[in-house]
Amino acid sequence: MAKSPSTIFTRLALTVAARYYPTEGVVDSYCLDGRFPGRREQRSVDSTLDREDRGFLFSVFGYPYSRQEDTSWREPLERLTEKINDPSSDIDSGLNDLADAAMDVTGRITLAEEGAREPYFSGFVLRDGEVAAVTLGDGVALLYRRGVLYPLTDETLEFNAVDSEGQAVTGINDFIAGEAGTLRYSNIAQIEQGDMFLICNQELYQALGQGDIMRILNSAEDQYDAAGLLLTSASAQVPGTSLQLMLGIVESATEDSRKASQLNLGRFNTQAVMGTPFDAKETGVDEHATQRYQREDMVDFLSEPDEEADVPQGWADEKDENDAFKPKQPDPDDETASFEQIQDDGIDTPGFAYTSPEDQRRRFGPSEVYE
């Protein structure tokens, strides 16, 4: 199996689109990198994820109706989502874990009753620029690369070895690895920028076929537009049938070993700081060059402030020859009231400014002050 020589960060845009109808036997669902359908998505789904990471897990499936009230089928996919992003993980262990998760989600497959659907599973696992797929039951996994639609796990699909222009191509089944019991595997392949991964249920693929899928993928503006067109076209062919698909496009794949080896310490990151002796002293360095505020100690608050200089009353200097031609301020009034001047001597009797002398004599009697 292929091994990725270094850490590769992949930017992947994923869109899941679905239309659900009540059916017997199976409940349709999906896992978009750890996200499952919510209550508002019981009848239809239209969700998109766009991010960059080392690992991804995305799948569409149908689990038995008897497990509808039980959420234990989520646990294998949740564990795998966390594990695929672990630094010690690789694509080989991810592929084996995806196969185990497919068996845990679908449960033990038994003979279905007439008219009832069977559980199915289709999923991708991507790690460090490598991708692999696993399908079970009616799950379908496809790869669209350079105008050619490749089956990844199933040789029984009706495929013609042609591209979107109708030209013959070779190696149409090169990505298929084989079967192991009820599981179908793909080979581990290196991803390329512009690759499109499509997983869906078999009802959607049979409604469109190889030709219509390539035509839509070739003419769509992006993966979101293509997913909507695929679902709309298939729903018109088989109305009332539960259909779901997940379409992802590789926007970029960047090899960067530095990102994996460097420990992110935030603002305390010291990896870029060169080692210097502890007794080394820097000379000619302005301590306040990179500081917004000057340093203050408690001593600054206890020290006596400097006396303020007297503000000159005029504009002219003593030695200014043009002093006579400049305006001058009047001399300041140095006379201020002292406490002795405003002290009450006990002679004045309180009264109001509008009190007449007659009222004063009537209220306080005759007095020299009022006479």
Walkthrough of the structure:
- This protein has 371 residues and is an alpha+beta fold.
- The chain has a domain at 8-261: Phosphatase 2c, domain 1, CATH 3.60.40.10.
- 21% of the residues lie in helices and 26% in strands.
- It has helices spanning 74-84, 91-106, 202-219, 223-237, 257-261, 298-302, 357-364; strands at 8-19, 26-32, 44-53, 55-64, 120-127, 130-136, 139-145, 148-151, 176-180, 183-186, 189-190, 196-201, 243-255.
- Strands 2, 4, 5, 6, 9, 10 and 11 form a seven-stranded antiparallel β-sheet that branches. It has a six-stranded antiparallel β-sheet with strand order 3-1-13-12-7-8.
- Strand 7 and strand 8 (148-151) form a beta hairpin.
- Helix 1 runs antiparallel to helix 2 (91-106) and helix 3 (202-219) crosses helix 4.
- The protein starts with 7 loop residues before the first strand and ends in a 7-residue tail after the last helix.
- Mean pLDDT is 79; it is low at 260-278 and 288-297.
How does the SSE layout of this entry go?
Elements: E1 8-19, E2 26-32, E3 44-53, E4 55-64, H1 74-84, H2 91-106, E5 120-127, E6 130-136, E7 139-145, E8 148-151, E9 176-180, E10 183-186, E11 189-190, E12 196-201, H3 202-219, H4 223-237, E13 243-255, H5 257-261, H6 298-302, H7 357-364
Antiparallel strand pairs: 1-3, 1-13, 2-4, 4-5, 5-6, 6-10, 6-11, 7-8, 7-12, 9-10, 12-13
Helix pairs in contact: 1-2, 3-4
Number of helices: 7
Shape: elongated
- Given as residue ranges, the uncertain stretches (5+ residues, pLDDT < 50) are 260-278, 288-297
Which CATH C-level class of the domain at 8-261 is it? Alpha Beta
